[in-house]
Target: TRAP transporter small permease protein
Amino acid sequence: MRSLLDKLYLASGYLSGFCIVLITLIITAQIVGRLFGFIVPSAEDFSGYALAASTFFGLAYTFREGGHIRVTLVIQHWTRGSRYIQELLVLFFALLLVSFMSFYSIHMVWESYIFEEVSSGYVSIPIWMPQVPVALGIVVLNIAVLDDVIALIKRHTPSYKAHEGELHLEEI
Model:
């Protein structure tokens, strides 16, 4: 199971990187097109969709690699037991928040599909299509947070803390 979850988080990170490459290609095509007198229809729309997909696909991978900002100025001086309780409370709150976001992201995609909403750019596409990566990315983040909640309950080190020392070593 661990191997499958790690592959899921890594795949999410790769999809995020792929979307950034896609943005680069779209913008480059738009620039070259202007030089040669033609336009790339809805380039701004598609690059915006790819940006949203990149952002949400990158959340779980970044969380697992300890890339999200953690402020430990106060809790670094707490006892081990107090810090454990604080970590657990924060992770439960994060799980609640991300679960809420996951539910409503999926609901948003479903409603867009049911009501047959389309984009308003030059190229009209069903709006649920660019919304799917957002929902998938937030669901993978939900799985990652749940994974760390379970790890912390089992008294294992959460994934984001495993990389905490790496940042301090790079600064020195």
The radius of gyration is 20 Å. The chain has one domain: 2-171. The mean pLDDT is 91.
